[in-house]
Design brief:
GO molecular function, one term: catalytic activity
Number of helices: 11
Strand content: 5-15%
Helix content: 40-55%
Family: Belongs to the enoyl-CoA hydratase/isomerase family.
CATH architecture of the domain at 8-184: Alpha-Beta Complex
Structural class: alpha/beta
CATH topology of the domain at 8-184: 2-enoyl-CoA Hydratase, Chain A, domain 1
Number of strands: 9
Protein name: Enoyl-CoA hydratase
Pfam families: ECH_1
Largest sheet: 6 strands, mixed
CATH superfamily of the domain at 8-184: 2-enoyl-CoA Hydratase, Chain A, domain 1
Order of helices and strands: EEHEEHHEEHEEHHHEHHHH
Length: 261
């Protein structure tokens, strides 16, 4: 659990630094405070020579719900939030130590970007996934940089457009996660043991090889996609979509299906 006033729990054991998203009131959304604490703890983990890997996990039934819509709705125009999200995701991808995700709850929208930025991820049977941006009037713009290079294009055409929920087996099939497991801790044990055996140089350079295409996407597309995201979030449709979500109602554009006679 996080200390009072914090949204991130921390702990280190056997060479693994565990960072626990612990902001249940907003479903571990990427608030300004949570993002700042993630940066600070990643810096500490990078500077600690005894840390071989970072394990990212969560409390509650949600790994991460993506953008904090309460914060986003409070702004009348474009903000720097998309650029800040891109910076966070790139930091995880470029982090010189492996970042592993353990997921036992829901992952939505920008949370899928955080998950895709991790090097290895294991999800339990209670996990669900969805790209819900189109349903609130925006698009999965910034998160596409870590998501699309690692996932099946045909599957992403479906899930980006429909916002459907899918489970761990499907997430593994399309490449969004590494492994679906009945017991995530049991599945992670050999992974973490393997990382503990790696040298700092060996892990950093091996990671650099497998993240090359993802980092190229950030270098090429960050400006364009952050601008797109900011413009969409400032639109009338997005304001209606976010308001409808927070008020637990359908947005004005939703089409009700006629009953079958």
């Amino acid at each position: 659990m996080a200390a009072p006033g914090r949204t991130l729990g921390t702990g280190t054991a056997n060479g693994v630094r565990t960072l626990t998203l612990d902001s249940p009131h907003n479903r571990n959304a990427l608030s300004t405070r949570l993002v700042a604490e993630l940066y600070a703890e990643l810096e500490r983990a990078e500077a600690d020579p005894g840390v071989r890997a970072v394990l990212l996990t969560h409390t509650g039934n949600t790994f991460c719900a993506g953008a904090d819509l309460s914060e986003a709705r409070a702004h009348d125009g474009p903000t720097d939030a998309p650029l800040e999200l891109a910076r966070l995701l790139r930091t995880v991808v470029a982090f010189p130590k492996p970042v592993v995700a353990r997921v036992s709850g829901h992952v939505r929208a920008g949370g899928t970007g955080l998950l895709a930025a991790c090097d290895i991820s294991v999800a339990g049977p209670g996990a669900t996934f969805a790209f819900t941006e189109a349903r609130i009037g925006v698009a999965p713009a910034v998160i596409s940089m870590p998501v699309l290079p690692r996932t099946d294009p045909r599957a992403m055409s479906r899930y980006y457009l429909t916002g459907e929920r899918f489970g761990p087996a499907e997430a593994a099939r399309i490449g969004l996660i590494t492994l679906a497991a009945d017991d995530p801790d049991e599945a992670l044990a050999p992974v973490l043991d393997g990382l503990r055996q790696g040298s700092p140089q060996g892990l950093a350079e091996s990671k650099r090889l497998v993240t090359r295409e993802v980092l190229a996407a950030f270098d090429r597309d960050t400006g364009t996609l952050a601008e797109l995201s900011a413009r969409l979030f400032a639109s009338d449709e997005a304001r209606e979509g976010m308001t409808a979500f927070l008020e637990r109602r359908e947005p004005e554009w939703a089409v009700r299906q006629a009953p079958v006679r």
